[in-house]
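User: I've been going back and forth on whether these two constructs are worth ordering. Before I decide, could you fold them both?

Assistant: Sure. I'll take them in the order you sent them. The first construct and its structure tokens:
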Amino acid sequence: MFQIIFNELSAAEISALPKRLQLELLAEFQILPEDLDQLDSERFGVIEREGKKLYRYRAKNYRIYFAKTEEGLKVHRVLHKTRFAIFCSEASCLFPRTRNWAKRASSGS
């Protein structure tokens, strides 16, 4: 069974948004794992480091950062588009940091 799983942090972030905005973002975020094989560059981005992939989906003024898992998708963060720097500083748990990591990652955001 395909699932979209929100971790604690992403669940708290989306819960903090107004209910109407939550529904609008989730209505836009309708994807399947096979959709990740041919990404629409208008909506999607990908960060890859040491064999791990983290995807970004653009929904309105928000960015949903997620990874593909055996069960489906695991959402790591739901951030306003201007908050990418916060994500970069915390993403070291998924990707080892390098000096130019944020610059390379944001070039596709």
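The second construct, handled the same way:
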Amino acid sequence: MSLTDDDVREILKLIDESDLDELHIETENFVLHVSKGAGGDGASLTPLMGVREASPTRTPEHPEEPRSDGAHTIDSPMLGTFYRAERPGADPFVEVGTEVEPDTIVAIIEVMKMMNSVPAGITGTIAEVCCDNASLVEYGQPLFRVDPK
């Protein structure tokens, strides 16, 4: 079963209009965990617990390929707002020179007030941060450049 962006929007709208404070749905290929914040605005960047790694339903048009200098890119798995840290004022997940493993969380992409963690997906060293913090990113847009090990 695959969900479209409209399906997710509809689910979030229904939850927002309901009396539910929290919803967790898990199937073989899909996990959805939604919690309403204490303030009800949902704008906080702190709820990293319960956030699943982003797993796009599509593959980028330009799959991760080595550049001529041997570096790989970590691309945005979805359209949304790119955050380098879990909350405003916190240290970034990674900086240039940070060693990463495939499961290292490098950023968060916010989509409709849902925070989606972005794993590195590769072992190496962050060589470049390609996006400004709190900027809108497109699906498949490079977020980081990584020198592989």
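Notes on the second construct follow. The chain has one helix and ten strands. The mean pLDDT is 77.
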